[in-house]
Amino acid sequence: MIIRPAERRDIARIAALAGELGYPSTADEMARRLAALGPRDAVLVADDGGGACVAWIHVGIIDSLESDRFAEIRGLVVAEANRGAGIGAALVRAAEEWARGRGCPRVRVRSNVLRERTHRFYKRLGYRVGKSQKVFDKSILA
Q: Is the model's pLDDT at 114 over the cut of 90?
C-alpha cells in the first residue's frame, strides 16, 4: 500500500468512494471540488501498489478567532472490500504528519452520531470526544 497525494487519475475513484461514504458524487463534481482546494488542504489516497485508489482522506488547516490553529479531517473513506486492513489508520497517521509539518498542534474530526464503527476507529487511534453538537444547514440560493 502506498500513501500519496491524490492525482487527476484518481478523481473517478474518489467520487465513487464518496458515494460509499453516503455522499454520491460524479467525477465532474469531484473534479470541481478538488480544484477549489488550496495549499491549506491535502487529499491523500491509499494506492494498492498498482495505481488504484482504494481509500482517501481530506485534511485541512483551520484558523479561527476562538482557538489556535488546528487541522481537521474533513473526510475519510476506505473501500468496503479493503476495510479492517489498517488502511484508514495509515491515512490518519499521514494526515497527522501533514498537519504537524504545517504547525498544527492538534487534529480534529467530526463524525455523524450514527457512525458508531467510525467512533470506535477514532478512539482506537487516540482521539477523544471533545463535544457534541448539532449542525444547522440552510440553502441560500433561490
A: no
